[in-house]
Amino acid sequence: MSERSSEPKLVEASNMQSWNGGVFPLAYTGGSRDSSGLPTALVTWLVHNKEMLKQQATEHGAILFRDFGLAGPEDFDRLIAALAIANFPYRESLSNAVRKNFTDRVFSANEAPSSVKIYLHHEMAQTPVFPSVILFYCDQAAEQGGATPICRSDVLYESVLKSHPKFIQELESKGLKYSNVMPGVDDPESGMGRSWQSTLGVQSKNAAETRLARLNYSWDWLAGDSLRATTPVLPAVRTLVDGRKTLFNQLIAAYAGWSDDRNDPSSAIRLGDNTKLSADPVRTLIDKAYEITYDLVWQTGDAVLIDNTLVMHGRRPFEGERRVLASLGGKQTHAFA
Ligand code: FE2
To answer: Strands 62-68, 26-32: parallel, antiparallel or unpaired by DSSP?
Structure first.
């Protein structure tokens, strides 16, 4: 019991990175190795230190909570509540992934099959409204693979600015537009198979059109009751409050990964003036992102708090059962949506 009353400690995450003197990710151990539930002492510590922890997440990009005794979705929910993070419910989002809800703010990360690689992305950067933070909790680690890659978008911005300054300047001045095709009914075989009814929170085509018009989207109806929706021009670069710039956009996932029976990645993304992106700098950007990516190798019971405007995340393929749950917090709107 005396172990339990001691405060969580900062530890070095394995293969931890260091950017401009700051570690990535920052990691705390709660000293509670048995998964018998989140101890009250740790809840108290989280409550007392929530402002410091949120500040650290903003600075470092990600905080790993290991050995906090988390034993299920309710414990994960308690951790989020202790940090006083405002809920951004999945059902109100325009996310294109199919998910399952566990509590009001906890849902499955993505129901796509285990062989599907989910490319690096900022959660919902391709929609006008997006969460400030995303949290993950590992309820069961996979037998093989299944790490969550995370990547510092400010570091990526600096790197691509050096190698392809004109490309970055074009992204900054023109912004990006995204197109995706939503099915008439949820397609759990796809990483982006959420139906248009569920995505837009509507029952009829008329209501879908009203919602899209309000969001400044354009659209067309396709065979099989599918709906292609194109966003207004959205910013491709974001300046954080401390002045750092990040590639807060959905370029990598849309260009490399938005592929299923309905979607062709080559038509998923355009510059704001409708011109195509040049393949060469995009390839460099994607390669560089994966080069600087940190693989978060899950231990059952881990939770992580990620600043969504600073850090991208994805999913490595895996074998065996893997249950990683997610939660979204804070609501922000793009500058020129
Ligand atoms: Fe995601």
So the answer is: parallel
Which tokens hold the place of 2? 């005396």
* Ligand 1 centre distance from Cα of residue 187 (Å): 17
Distance 329 CA to ligand 1 centre (A): 13
Residue 3 has what pLDDT?
A: 45
All structural domains of the chain, each given as residue ranges with its CATH number in brackets, are 9-150+297-311+318-332 (3.60.130.10), 155-289 (3.60.130.10)
Alpha-carbon distance of 159 to 101, in angstroms, equals: 38
The whole-angstrom separation of Cα 39 and Cα 77 is 13
Decide if 177 contacts 269 (C-beta within 8 A).
Answer: yes
The length of the chain, given as a count of residues: 337
Q: How far is the CA of 107 from the centre of ligand 1 (A)?
A: 12
Distance CA 211, CA 234 (A): 18
> Ligand 1 (ion): which residues have CB within 5 A?
123
Mean pLDDT estimate for the chain: 92
Residue 109: the pLDDT is 84
Residue 269 has pLDDT above 80, yes or no: yes
**127's tokens:** 């929609």
Predicted pLDDT at 47: 97
Question: How many CA atoms does the CB half-sphere of 69 hold within 13 Å?
Answer: 16
For residue 240, the model assigns a pLDDT of 95
pLDDT per position as a tens digit, 210-254: 999 999 999 999 998 999 999 999 999 999 999 999 999 999 999
